[in-house]
Amino acid sequence: MKIVRSVNIICFVMLVLFLAGGCGNYAANDLPSTEQVIEEIQRAGEAASTIFAEVEETIMQDNKLQLSLNYTMWRKNDNVRIEGSIPDLGRAVQVFENNRLSVYVEERGVIYVYNQSANQERQSNNVSSISFSVSEENILQMMRGLGSLFEVSVIRFEDVNNERVVFLGLRPVNATHESRFTWWVDMDTWFPIKREFSLKNYVRSVSYANLKINESLDESLFKLNVPSDVQIINALPDAGFLPNVGAGE
Length: 249
Hints:
- By secondary structure, this protein is α+β, with helices and mostly antiparallel strands.
- It is built from five helices and 14 strands.
- The chain folds into two domains: 2-46 and 140-213, no CATH class; 49-54 and 68-137 and 216-245, no CATH class.
- Helices cover 20% and strands 45% of the residues.
- The chain is globular.
- The relative contact order is 0.18.
């Protein structure tokens, strides 16, 4: 009986300590409303201009793993640099700058170039598999427009790996299909540490580790310099853009 009572007391003390810590600027007995959560995330998105993160991305279809990627990402406003490995292609460096996307597959000495305006055609031609899909999503824009882009609901508040997290359910406004997003948001920084998109039997997850916000990023990160003997493939005729060939030697 004494042992059970002691365990109960310990559990109670741990619960009190967790609740006393609050969530961000909110006390445990005054957790933020859905409207306040939206405001905090939008404010964090507005205040951020750069992001560095180590990213894990997975795609599941019918409960089977279809794709698994691990890469490093630098983002400065609309410009993105990603370094990692693409299945069946090897190590690659991808730069998205000024609405133009280039993917340099180092081991093959090949670079693919195209522009964002041709995304739909590019995907229909099945050449999107050469790129990291997350590059075309601007998480800062999603955060800044959270309240207008999505119908937001708070699922629960929880302590995950010593981080205070709010789980959000998001449904795109005026969506014509049953797609849903789930965000795990760190309540200290108000940034998503994990995002999940689901549509029927398709689930795509993106997790961020070692997240750094508003650190100085050199502009050279978003300039892709490649050797002069690289093979250039214009994924679409209207790419209208070539990387800095020869500068990488």
